[in-house]
Design brief:
The strands form 3 sheets. Strands 1-2-3-6 form a 4-stranded parallel sheet, with helices on one face. Strands 4-5 form a two-stranded antiparallel ribbon. It contains 5 helices and 8 strands. It is of the alpha/beta class.
Amino acid sequence: VGKGPTADLVRRFDRSGWNVMSLNHACTLPIPLTIAHFVDLSALRDCQATLTARPDVTIVLPWRPHVHFKPGPTLCEQSDQVIAFLERYDRVAAYNVPGVPRPHPDLPAVRLRKFSAVGAVALLAACDVKTVYTAGVDGGTEYAPGFDRKDLLANGQPNFDGQFAEFRRIEKIYGVRIVPLAPDDHCPIED
């Protein structure tokens, strides 16, 4: 579940039996979550209070989370505040991003390009998930109402559409199906 205009659609489905992963600030949505995926350290910082109230959610992020849209220090080299939060939280998983220097020798490599949704879907595919349903991963240039627009496309991309080419690549590599819960006009994943 991302922050796009269709984020709320996930509430319309029976999620029993589903594991739900949020992307960045979408962890603040009032829905049951299994995983909260973050790429940028600033988003994790913004969501610390929400995550503290949801100790059953596993936080997943790169071994070297992004700072200003570039790989930053490793998780062990972060500020004392971040390390203390992650140590208290206790449910944290990490992955390497191919091509990023100083990978952790015991972590898997997961493709990450342009947007956190790409890393999340690639991670699920690498874990042998066969079908990934998406909501709030819409393309275009908007967030759903209620999300702060301060970081909207702050990575310099003109829109969120670039994630769909990456999704097609992940589908071909892993044989995973990526199925938008939204109408086709919001999620232009093409064969």
